[in-house]
């Protein structure tokens, strides 16, 4: 075992990807489109969200190019507005919200808790179809001309003043919303009812805790955006007047309903990331996460608090000063569990045995970027400062630090970490590390200047801007091009690794989770024997005993040579 | 350089000369807000440094080469309590400090000079009480509290002056207010910061801060003859408001003299203090705002008066300290109602004072 | 979405087609046919399905809560308009509909009982009755909507303030003893009718979905699918149906009985 990596691979000469696994179980397009296997559905989600990421990313690229110069010389204002609206809608509803829950969550939750599948596999497939149909509606919306309301659909602009395809955009979100609801519902039921024997709540991996928090938000918040989107559509079609000030309706009510979903949704975009980081940090420092209980409960606390902070998006909109006080206070409080997590992750490293494999580099990046995003979030939660920096590039930078710097880094960490489990093959490690560094540098160069721009006062969603802001915008665009490389590189080498990557074996990372104690890629039913959880989460000593025992067994029975480390496909038993 | 690449030349010479990292502080609140910002920034930097130092030093001390076998540490309630309570204390401090500034920004002092701002796609229309009318520009004096009363004619806008560190959403259907006291003469940016449609990014303008003397000169040079209240008086007459609000013993509506700032009991038993927002509501949705003791007979003027017209009326009522002038107009305005009613809302303000004054 | 249990608890054919080569399934031949491969026991399966249904109803509560919030705010602001608007609704039809729906809830509860006790013919009968009562509810709702349509009380370009500005010209308003509303108040009745159509419309949409599932269930019940010891689906659908019933009771109180407390 090399000193700077933890990877331990089977002998490449004799090893092979197991012939029978969830990928080879059945063949043909139909077997994928009608699958109820949570792992295949996760792959379907990976492909669709990846597709939408490309669309959203292209919109972002044109936006950044346009902002190279202070005057609009690349696209017209209408086009520019459509671009950032599409970027927002696609990235929020069709990439960030589904990416971690639907891809990694679907793949891992049943395996981590020792179940054969999620509780409602057919509903799971239905979720993917709803998501895809919603996405197709958005594609239709883009083809017939786009929408220019921004992803926030502010009324009365969206209901009475624009003549773009608001209805299609809202319909797409409405349909995809049910996908979120059903995914969250499925996860909650799965976590409650499908845990393996011995898998008590406090033996769950922290990944599961954070996904549980995410699912609570899905279930409680998403229905509200659904009804809000219905109201927007009906207001445009039929002329009902719930949000129309001309008829006595209140446009601020829309803001309340919209942010009642959209703020918790922000935590949907970060909580899964926190779960991934807990797994990765623990594994690459060979240590149980410092303060397991605190980290577990902070996930639930974030999910609960997230429902009481929505009006901090409306501090300058003339809500009463007293409600502003309450919402500011709660917004401060929601930062506490996040701070706890960051410190606990750092403390996890203490006396560990740390290696710097790609997932760990992404995790370090996550901690840094998320801390910056969180601190600027506190600035925005502070009533006084919020007045100056809200609605400017400061807020743009803040949420990109949390969602892109945080969530996308975490997702990349998770994708690299579980890639061998998903595909049975390793990605190229040195390229992986390079990409992680490029992503970090590119990201900071893109979004850090935007903090300064925001404090200088440059409003968001500006097509033309005063020329003195140009230098910082040029930096930002330059950073974006580096960032693009940071995204493109993993796509290329991950695809390459599908065919040429090293054979991963069951547990290349020496990780403790149940998902690693079965073959990679797993069988359709995940485990050959129902696993029994007889140890705490992140019990690396248990793993060592387990490995020793299986090696002894292997030495004893020389007959079984056809499989690599056959005992690891077995389910953990008392060591 | 110029002959190699004009683009780079322009970028280097022109842009780098006005490059800045920090906005000017041109109002009384700006240094206070910046102080809070720097406090949070400092705390954030300390926190970030702590995290980075921890991660970096542990990475060096406990990497696999140096520390091949991890030592399991379960957690420490004391440590965790420390890093829960210290941030909590700091956050509460920021919260209180921020709340104080928030109250300050959104609570205008009683002697503030009021300027009305109407936002519409995609311009700012500014109405000074002296009748000065500006588009996409705002002239203010130094050393004087200025309150802005903001309203939108169509969609949400947001009135933002970064150099003053103030911003307020401009909402259709209700007044919002913000105030500031400018300190440094100069020209500053004025932005619409809430996305409002196609030309959102061009809904900008200049805030021109002048010394009180220059400001007086500007006021005198830009007046259109009639003050906002005078326009309001004309409108008041042409809409026949005086038919009821005339303070006669048999008047069907309450007297409006000195009503501004007074405390009223409404027909539904509610107590309110009369401010601009109430006056506006009482004109547009009178049935919801009937003064106790009067019948809900006032017709609504929703859709009949422009926002500028409402502003003029509000300004007139605000400055009404006796009923004498109303009774005067009552005797003199026997014009046919149609002739002026049409001219008043749509035509009046722009026709007489529509020039852009800079 | 309400059909979630339907999709979870299929019959043997469905379960088998899901996983033709499932080793776990064939390894446990003693499993009842309706047990899906990834559950350990029928109890766990029923538990999971019931829990999922309750969670789903929670999301439904959140869905409607957006509308209820809007209702509460506007009712507070525009109370007079809401009263005048509610006088345009027929309490008689509303009460009838409430009775119809409560009765259908009763027949649904009976259906669950029949399913649990294995009474196939009675189950089919109860489900059919529930179906007919549900149709009846929608029919009555249709009559009410038609009336609103004729009086131009549907929000939008053709909305008419006639009944509120001149209540003497309107039978319902006259019967309720309405006095003419001032114009600004009268205009706010459009907000009331917006909410009326939104809330009852959303409710009716849920009814339609429910009826579709009911129709499907009647066919399956006749084939004996729910009387072979596996009542979970009927039970969960019952929960959904009772939920719709409860929502309607709230709507009835909030929309029809504003000034009659």
Which percent band covers the strand fraction of chain A? under 5%
Which CATH architecture of the largest domain in chain B?
Orthogonal Bundle
CATH superfamily (homologous) name of the largest domain in chain B: Cytochrome c-like domain
CATH class of the largest domain in chain B: Mainly Alpha
Provide keyphrases for this structure.
heterotrimer, A: 575 residues, mainly alpha, 65% helix, disordered C terminus, B: 358 residues, alpha+beta, Immunoglobulin-like, Cytochrome Bc1 Complex, Chain D, domain 2, 5-stranded mixed β-sheet, 12 strands, elongated
Description:
The complex is a heterotrimer of chains A (575), B (358) and C (261). Chain A is mainly alpha-helical and 575 residues long. Chain A is 65% helix and 0% strand. Among the domains of chain A are: 17-26 and 512-575, no CATH class; 356-504. The longest helix of chain A has 36 residues, at 77-112. Chain B has helices at 6-17, 29-61, 77-106, 212-222, 228-238, 276-284, 307-318, 324-332, 337-353, and strands at 113-120, 123-128, 133-135, 137-141, 145-152, 157-161, 166-170, 176-181, 186-192, 205-210, 263-265, 271-273. In chain B, β6 (157-161) and β7 form a beta hairpin. Mean pLDDT of chain B is 85; it is low at 333-358. In chain B, 40% of the residues lie in helices and 18% in strands. Chain B contains nine helices and twelve strands. Chain C has 261 residues and is mainly alpha-helical. Residues 1-29 of chain C have low confidence and may be disordered. Chain C is built from twelve helices and no strands. Helices cover 74% and strands 0% of the residues of chain C. The interface between B and C is small, with 11 and 9 residues.
Compose a concise summary of this entry:
The complex is a heterotrimer of chains A (575), B (358) and C (261). With 575 residues, chain A is mostly helical.
Write the layout of secondary structure elements.
The complex is a heterotrimer of chains A (about 575), B (about 350) and C (about 260).
Chain A: H1 29-33, H2 38-66, H3 77-112, H4 121-143, H5 157-161, H6 166-193, H7 206-238, H8 251-268, H9 271-284, H10 292-305, H11 321-348, H12 358-381, H13 383-389, H14 393-423, H15 429-456, H16 470-500, H17 540-556
Helix pairs in contact in A: 2-3, 2-4, 3-6, 3-7, 3-14, 4-6, 6-7, 7-8, 7-9, 7-10, 9-12, 9-14, 10-11, 11-12, 12-14, 12-15, 14-15, 15-16
Chain B: H1 6-17, H2 29-61, H3 77-106, E1 113-120, E2 123-128, E3 133-135, E4 137-141, E5 145-152, E6 157-161, E7 166-170, E8 176-181, E9 186-192, E10 205-210, H4 212-222, H5 228-238, E11 263-265, E12 271-273, H6 276-284, H7 307-318, H8 324-332, H9 337-353
Parallel strand pairs in B: 1-5, 4-10
Antiparallel strand pairs in B: 1-2, 2-3, 5-8, 6-7, 6-9, 9-10, 11-12
Chain C: H1 4-8, H2 12-18, H3 23-27, H4 42-77, H5 79-86, H6 91-116, H7 120-150, H8 162-165, H9 171-176, H10 183-187, H11 189-222, H12 232-256
């Amino acid at each position: 075992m090399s000193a700077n990596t933890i990877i331990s691979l089977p002998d490449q000469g004799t090893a092979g990807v197991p012939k029978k696994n969830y990928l080879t179980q059945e063949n043909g397009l139909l077997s994928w489109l009608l699958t109820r296997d949570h792992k295949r559905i996760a792959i379907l989600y990976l492909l669709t969200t990846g597709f939408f990421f490309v669309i959203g990313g292209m919109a972002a690229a044109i936006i950044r190019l346009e902002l190279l110069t202070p005057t609009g010389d690349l696209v017209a204002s209408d086009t520019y507005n459509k671009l950032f609206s599409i970027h927002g809608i696609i990235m929020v509803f069709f990439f960030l919200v589904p990416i971690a829950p639907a891809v990694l969550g679907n793949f891992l939750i049943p395996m981590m808790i020792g179940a054969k599948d999620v509780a409602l596999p057919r509903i799971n497939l239905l979720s993917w179809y709803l998501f895809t149909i919603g996405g197709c509606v958005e594609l239709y919306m883009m083809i017939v001309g786009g929408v220019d309301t921004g992803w926030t659909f502010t009324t009365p602009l969206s209901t009475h003043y624009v003549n773009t395809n608001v209805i299609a955009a809202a319909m797409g979100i409405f349909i995809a919303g049910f996908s979120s609801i059903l995914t969250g519902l499925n996860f909650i039921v799965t976590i409650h009812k499908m845990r393996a024997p011995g898998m008590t709540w406090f033996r769950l991996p922290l990944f599961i805790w954070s996904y549980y928090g995410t699912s609570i938000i899905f279930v409680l918040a998403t229905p509200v955006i659904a009804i809000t989107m219905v109201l927007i559509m009906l207001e445009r079609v039929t002329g009902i007047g719930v949000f129309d000030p001309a008829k006595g309706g209140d446009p601020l009510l829309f803001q309340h309903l919209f942010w009642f979903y959209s703020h918790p949704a922000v935590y949907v975009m970060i909580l899964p990331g926190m779960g991934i980081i807990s797994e990765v940090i623990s594994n690459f420092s060979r240590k149980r996460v410092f303060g397991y209980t605190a980290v577990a409960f902070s996930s639930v606390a974030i999910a609960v608090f997230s429902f009481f902070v929505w009006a901090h998006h409306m501090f300058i909109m003339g809500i009463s000063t007293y409600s502003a006080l309450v919402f500011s206070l709660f917004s401060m409080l929601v930062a506490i569990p996040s701070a706890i997590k960051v410190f606990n992750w750092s403390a996890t490293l203490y006396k560990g045995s740390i290696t710097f494999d790609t997932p760990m580099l992404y995790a370090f990046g996550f901690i840094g970027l998320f801390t910056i995003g969180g601190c600027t979030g506190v600035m925005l939660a502070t009533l006084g400062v919020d007045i100056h920096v809200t609605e400017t590039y400061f807020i743009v930078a803040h949420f990109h630090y949390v969602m892109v710097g945080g969530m996308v880094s975490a997702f990349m960490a998770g994708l690299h970490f579980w890639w061998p489990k998903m595909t049975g093959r390793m990605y190229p490690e040195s390229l992986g590390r390079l990409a992680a560094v490029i992503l970090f540098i590119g990201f900071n160069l893109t979004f850090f200047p935007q903090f300064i721009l925001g404090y200088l006062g440059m409003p968001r969603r500006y097509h033309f801007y005063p020329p003195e802001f140009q230098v910082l915008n040029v930096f930002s665009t330059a950073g974006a091009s580096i960032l693009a490389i940071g995204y493109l590189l993993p796509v290329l080498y991950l695809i390459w690794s599908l065919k040429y990557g090293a054979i991963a074996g069951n547990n290349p990372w020496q990780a403790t989770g149940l998902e690693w104690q079965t073959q990679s890629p797993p069988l359709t039913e995940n485990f050959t024997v129902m696993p029994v959880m007889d140890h705490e989460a992140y019990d690396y000593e248990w793993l060592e005993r387990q490995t020793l025992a299986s090696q002894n067994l292997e030495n004893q029975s020389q007959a079984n040579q056809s499989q690599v480390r056959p005992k690891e496909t077995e389910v953990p038993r008392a060591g | 350089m110029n002959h190699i690449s004009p683009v780079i030349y322009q970028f280097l010479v022109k842009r780098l000369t006005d490059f800045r990292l920090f906005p000017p502080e041109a109002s009384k609140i700006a240094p206070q807000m910046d102080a809070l910002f720097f406090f949070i920034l400092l705390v954030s930097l300390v926190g970030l440094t702590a995290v980075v130092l921890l991660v970096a030093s542990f990475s060096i001390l406990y990497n696999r080469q140096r520390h091949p076998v991890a030592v399991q540490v379960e957690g420490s309630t004391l440590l965790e309590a420390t890093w829960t309570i210290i941030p909590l204390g700091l956050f509460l401090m920021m919260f209180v400090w921020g709340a104080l500034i928030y109250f300050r920004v959104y609570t205008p002092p009683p002697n503030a000079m009021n300027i009305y701002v109407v936002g519409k796609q995609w311009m700012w229309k500014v109405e000074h009480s002296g009748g000065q009318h500006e588009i996409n520009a705002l002239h203010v004096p130094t050393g004087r509290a200025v309150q802005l009363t903001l309203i939108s004619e169509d969609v949400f806008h947001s009135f933002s002056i970064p150099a003053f560190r103030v911003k307020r959403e401009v909402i259709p259907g209700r007044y919002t207010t913000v105030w500031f006291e400018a300190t440094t003469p100069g020209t500053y940016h004025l932005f619409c910061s809430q996305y409002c449609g196609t030309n959102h990014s061009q809904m900008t303008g200049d805030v021109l801060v002048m010394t009180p003397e220059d400001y007086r000169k500007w006021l005198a040079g830009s007046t259109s003859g009639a003050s906002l209240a005078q326009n309001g008086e004309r409108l008041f007459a042409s809409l026949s408001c005086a038919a009821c609000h005339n303070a006669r013993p048999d008047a069907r509506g309450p007297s409006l003299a000195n009503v501004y700032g007074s405390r009223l009991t409404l027909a539904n038993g509610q107590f309110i203090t009369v401010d601009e927002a109430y006056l506006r509501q009482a004109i547009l949705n009178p049935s919801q705002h009937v003064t106790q003791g009067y019948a809900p007979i006032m017709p609504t003027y929703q859709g009949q008066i422009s926002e500028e017209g409402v502003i003029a009326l509000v300004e007139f009522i605000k400055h009404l300290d006796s009923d004498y002038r109303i009774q005067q107009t009552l005797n003199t305005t026997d014009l046919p109602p149609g002739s002026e009613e049409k001219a008043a809302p749509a035509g009046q303000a722009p026709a007489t004072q529509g020039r852009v004054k800079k | 979405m309400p059909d979630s249990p339907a999709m979870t608890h299929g019959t043997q054919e469905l379960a088998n087609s899901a996983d033709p080569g499932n080793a776990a399934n064939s390894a446990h031949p003693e499993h009842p046919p309706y047990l899906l491969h990834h559950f350990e026991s029928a109890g766990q399966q029923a538990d999971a399905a019931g829990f999922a249904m309750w969670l789903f109803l929670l999301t439904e509560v959140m869905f409607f809560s957006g509308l209820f919030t809007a209702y509460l705010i506007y009712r507070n602001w525009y109370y007079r308009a809401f009263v005048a608007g509610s006088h345009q609704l027929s309490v008689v039809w509303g009460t009838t509909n409430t009775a119809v729906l409560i009765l259908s809830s009763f027949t649904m509860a009976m259906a669950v009982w029949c399913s649990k006790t294995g009474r196939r013919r009675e189950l089919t009968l109860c489900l059919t009755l529930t179906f007919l009562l549900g149709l009846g509810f929608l029919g009555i709702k249709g009559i009410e909507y038609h009336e609103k349509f004729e009086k131009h009380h549907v929000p939008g370009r053709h909305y008419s303030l006639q009944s509120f500005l001149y209540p003497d010209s309107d039978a319902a308003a006259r019967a309720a003893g309405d006095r003419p509303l001032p114009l600004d108040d009268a205009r706010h009745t459009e907000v009331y009718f917006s909410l009326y159509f939104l809330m009852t419309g959303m409710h009716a949409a849920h009814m339609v979905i429910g009826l579709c599932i009911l129709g499907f269930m009647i066919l399956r019940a006749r084939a004996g699918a729910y009387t072979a010891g596996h009542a979970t689906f009927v039970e969960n659908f019952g929960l959904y149906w009772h939920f719709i019933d409860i929502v309607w009771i709230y709507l009835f109180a909030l929309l029809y009985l504003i000034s009659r407390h």
